[in-house]
Design goal:
This protein is an alpha+beta fold and 435 residues long. It contains 8 helices and 21 strands. The protein is 20% helix and 30% strand. A hairpin with a 7-residue loop joins strand 17 and strand 18.
């Protein structure tokens, strides 16, 4: 398919996805560098196993490609999908179906003894076609793994940099979302800032008058700024970085039980703050609506009650909750001044039934006592737990289960014992599930 590329018109973007390319001698990946598999047959069996490919293909065909198709409107996009001749036929069928449905896709079946298609060959075919007004205009080259996503405005964000003055540079969209993928859904979504991440990392290239390709030298993307200028644009969400147990970065943990690997991934990405604005996420990644949550557990619901630090006044701070039920995890982060002491703050809970009426304390007191939740004689407090209040930063994680038919509808964080202590509330998150 020839693209009409005219001055002031469409900008050409060329992307590449390596969909299970068989590279047994490559040292770039744990799967192929000998650290995981002892023989080529063992590596090949893993590479093309349903264990590895089922989740990746679900993400790629059901989520990533529809996002890419929507993003490509108004732009000249060619996307090369490279795959091995050994890829199981059912996955090759899906690739052929995808190429028939999306005319911007180019399939590159890599067969032993035959030269593969390259980004450069696609660029030459596109730029030096009869319909190209100016074959020497710049174009963007980007990469996308089969288990990651680009935002619906990816090409809009990058088009402004595909200009002659930027040739030889690269563009990094540094802000994005990282989340754990399991059984068709994403959870533990975090807002990530990761400059020069490989997802969607784009170089600006062109052809000289003699046909030579002008492109940045091939170096590791995470050290690229030491070799040539990199444009950093982190104003908008630029990627979804998927994490799961079948990734190359997880293979070093292969000797561990699956749950331990997932916990290690979760602990790694928890260095980033939890996603608090799902509307922003859905605007950039509409295919994920209803499929992504900030909950730490795939089967729980997550509510972020505080979006910016707040000083706790004497009456306390109240937050309504959308009827949390079942097993609860409430995480509170506060900062106390140097005069703070033990039990200097508490979190109280308003419990209601299905109709929103207050629950009789005597009916649930035995259950709540087992859950180590106290009930104050002060009617303004009710059910509560103390917060950790050492001077400085504190985090308190509370876990307890509510009886069937009982819901948490409100929490109040308030100072206690020394009300003149300065305490700042940084965050409160509530996660709940039906157990």
């Amino acid at each position: 398919m020839a693209l009409k590329l005219e001055s002031g018109g469409k900008v050409l973007f060329i992307g590449q996805t390596r969909f299970s390319v068989y590279s047994p001698k490559s040292g770039a990946w744990k799967a192929s560098n000998g650290s995981r598999f002892r023989s080529e047959p063992e590596y090949r069996e893993y590479l093309f196993s349903d264990e590895r490919l089922a989740g990746r293909s679900a993400i790629f065909f059901n989520l990533s490609l529809p996002q890419l198709a929507a993003a490509s409107k108004g732009h000249g996009v060619r996307h090369l999908i490279s795959y091995s001749e050994y890829l199981p036929e059912k996955y090759q069928d899906r690739l052929r179906e995808a190429a028939a449905a999306h005319n911007f896709l180019i399939l590159d079946k890599q067969v032993a003894g035959q030269a593969p298609k390259t980004v450069e060959s696609v660029a030459r075919a596109s730029m030096f076609s009869e319909t190209t007004a100016d074959p020497y205009q710049p174009f963007g080259v980007y990469r996308l793994d089969d288990d990651d996503l680009l935002p619906i405005n990816y090409f809009d964000l990058n088009a402004r940099y595909v200009k002659s003055e930027f040739v030889g540079m690269q563009v990094s969209l540094g802000t994005g979302i990282t989340a754990i993928y399991m059984e068709g859904k994403f959870y533990n979504a975090r807002r990530s800032y990761h400059p020069m991440l490989g997802i969607g990392y784009m170089s600006i290239q062109n052809f000289s008058g003699d046909g030579t390709l002008n492109s940045p030298p091939a170096v590791m993307h995470n050290t690229a700024d030491r070799h040539y200028p990199v444009v950093m644009d982190s104003k908008r969400l630029g990627y979804v970085w998927t994490r799961h147990i079948e990734q190359d970065t997880s293979l070093g943990l292969v000797a561990s039980p699956e749950g331990d690997i997932t916990d290690s991934i979760r602990n790694h990405i928890n260095q980033h703050p939890a996603v608090t604005d799902l509307n922003e996420l859905h605007e950039s990644f509409p295919v994920l609506e209803g499929l992504i949550t900030a909950s730490a557990d795939a089967n729980s619901e997550h509510q972020e009650l505080v979006t910016s630090p707040q000083i706790i006044p004497s009456p306390g701070l109240q937050f309504a909750i959308d009827n949390a039920r079942g097993a609860l995890t409430i995480t509170t982060k506060i900062v106390c001044d140097m005069q703070s002491e033990v039990r200097n703050a508490l979190l109280s809970f308003e419990l209601v039934d299905g109709q929103g009426n207050a629950v009789d304390r005597e009916v649930i007191q035995d259950h709540m006592k087992e859950q180590q939740v106290s009930c104050s004689g002060n009617p303004g407090i009710g059910w509560f737990r103390y917060l950790t209040t050492r001077p400085g930063q504190n985090q308190t994680v509370m876990k307890f289960a509510l009886p069937s038919g009982v819901y948490l509808s409100r929490v109040t964080v308030r100072k206690w014992r020394k009300p003149d202590t300065a305490i700042t509330l940084r965050s409160i998150t509530v996660e709940h599930s039906d157990r």
